[in-house]
Amino acid sequence: MTWTDEELVARSISGDSDSFNELVLRWERPIYALAYRTIGREEDARDVCQETFLRAFRALPGFRGQAKFSSWLYRIALNLCRDWMRRERRAQVVQPPEDVDLLELAAAAEPSESIEDLVARKDLTRLVERAMALLPAEQRTAIVLKEYHGLTFQEIAELVGCPLSTVKTRLYQGLIVLRRELAKNTKATL
User: Domain spanning 5-88: which CATH class is it, in words?
Assistant: First the structure.
């Protein structure tokens, strides 16, 4: 039987540790992806992801269901990412994973994808990551939540605590910068 997040939360609060483990399994990848795309470093993203679930577990008895569990979890992760960026005072640099082996990726790719297509896709991914690193944190967060996680504008506004129009402006301005950077970089590589 598949339980909803809210049912798993209720069971967890009642002392069922397996229910919280199910929530972790369900949300670990999206929270890690959010942290990685916000911070840009694998190791730090793993730490933020782990800390997100630790804080969620500790605060779970206080969760009243006024927001969706996923929104509550995203808010915890975003706050931890902001804290990390403030604490580290580093420029957010998105680095491709160090352990990427192009030959291994090519072998794992679908048979219809040529090595040229794979290389082009990886190059485009790196260009997007570099362009994303140039954006202010608010714009990058809006783009990550909308484009990578599929949240609505309203969900993003509630999650980051700002008006709906601000979210739309941040997304629009961030996408303009991304397009400009990608156009500039793709022309430079031709």
Answer: mainly alpha
